[in-house]
Amino acid sequence: MTISEVLDQPGPGQVEVWLCHRWHTLGIGDIPVSTLHRGFLSLLLFTDLQAWELYLHTEPHSYDRLTATGDELISRLHDRADFDAIFIDPHTQPERAPFPPSMVEDLANARDPRQVVNVLPARSVAEIHHFFEDQGYPTPAHQIIEEGGQLVAQYGSFRFSLVQAQARPADYGQGPSLILCAGKLLERLRNELQSSSSARAHPLARLRALQILDEFEKLLLPGTSNVDRAALRSCEGARFVREHFWLTHDLATTRAHLEAPAGPPEDWREPTGDLEEAVSRPAPGQLSLLLESQWWVWRGQVGLAPIPGETVFAFTGPERLTAFLEQLEQARHMSVDPELRHLGDGWMAVPVVHWDDRYRNAYTTRMRGRDLLHAASQPGACELIRMNPGGGLDSSSITASDALEMLAGRDPRPGAFFVKARSRAEIEAYLSQNFLNHPQHRQVRLQGCLLDEYSDSRKRFYFYPVELECAQAELAPGRTSILCAGWWTKVLFTVNSIWEPGLPEQWRLQKLCWTAEMLKLVDPTTDRIPQSEVRSANGLSAVHNNPALLEGAWLRELRQKLGGGVPQRTEVESNEKEQ
Fold first, then answer.
1. CA distance linking residue 51 with residue 96, whole number of Å
2. How many CB atoms are closer than 10 A to CB 351?
3. What does DSSP assign to residue 123?
4. Closest C-alpha to 420, from 411, 410, 430
5. Quick count: other Cβ atoms within 10 Å of Cβ 498?
6. Sheet holding 418-419, edge to edge
7. pTM, two decimal places
8. Do residues 47 and 89 lie in contact, with contact meaning Cβ atoms separated by under 8 Å?
9. Residue 202's pLDDT band (boundaries 50, 70, 90)?
10. Residue by residue, what is the 3-state secondary structure of 36-51?
11. 500-557 confidence digits (pLDDT tens)
12. Which residue among 29, 56, 465, 539 is least enclosed by CB atoms within 10 Å?
């Protein structure tokens, strides 16, 4: 049989034709590439040169034409996660329905990727009903037929292996599903949670959501929050997982939410205080207000740059969120449906139309600050939480590591705690790091402590009194515990790039001093500054874009360039390393 006959006349025993046929696809050298087609990030396969030329006539491309057998393509695509669909001979009439990413795994294991060809291994009747719900139509009547010497249940065009009765009719059975799509399960879970803000108050809704969550977790790669590509059995589900991948990092929070008793805990009380003031002017004593207040949380995609997984936006009220969306419209030339400006409880989609007519969904929800921080602090969930963003002076940012500290009872935001500095010079550096360059200084007594307050119209910082002045070689003995390594290495990197001989001596000594301070933070075992020394959002952004800023080698090179020589390890430091 030819490949065209196999595609048009599905039947058993056709896998060998798929694997032996020489396919044409878009490539860069010998690497297949994916492109946007029919709303999916797609891999395009062509059965012959005529289909290839037809596609190029319709959608010209500068990619190379890659020719390979089915076996060769499968080996190259096995670990790829950058496509939602596989189209065969796009733009032919009629155009064939796309295949999901699970096609790669099916062919690699000598299985036909078309579900109508195989006897599907269902675990229960409930799973069969769920399968047809995902297909978009009611479960058809079935009959028991004999095929290949065994009995199977035929539902319309699909055939399923016979299943055993479950103890409860709603149970799906043991082990992971071999017929349901992981992406569809995740979408259904999201829909169950957003359909009603009081889902926990309805026992049946809660049990249903927990059942879907159980089934989805079975399809994750062991020990990770990544979905098994072989379990993405629909193109829509694969696209949903790619565009909403951050949802997989919130599963522990989702389960805790569903398993918690309905209603707020008895000891919970609506906090009192000005939440916007706590965001714009951090001060001691605001932690409980941030943790117990309700936040409006926005996650989504802007343009083609993924924001979820890196940044989460949190707002103190719906008017703040609406203003932020309006700014996005002006800055990105996109529109938001006015009817969806009224944001209710629970998850709700806000469709955003971009200048290139591509659609993305941004999702909003209301959640308590404690739950938000717990979700954000999970590994890989996000790098940054921006509170009340919008370009004004009243926004604030915390990192994922800050979230852990806040859950542990310490507010790490600058201005929200009393700083123990080593010297006045370190205080000046700390204020400069937080953009407070000409502060007013006074002594105040707060919570029984005599403190030095440095402030302007927007920010306040409190320091325990210090007397040590700055020396030329270093700020003070010992390592800093308050300065952000990412911020100051970025400053030094800029200095290095514009360095010119003949600049003032005081300027050179100051930069030499900062280089010495950063060298104190270098871990001798890795010759890098640990990530834990990056304590600010600006520093995090700097080292994210240039990881080499934390390398000890270039700091020593800069010190030598500034005329300080290469620092030698002292006898005390050598003994500390040996210990």
1. 13
2. 12
3. S
4. 430
5. 7
6. 418-419, 460-463, 449-455, 440-446
7. 0.52
8. yes
9. low
10. EECCEEEEEEECCHHH
11. 555 567 777 788 888 888 999 998 888 999 887 888 777 877 887 788 889 988 888 8
12. 29
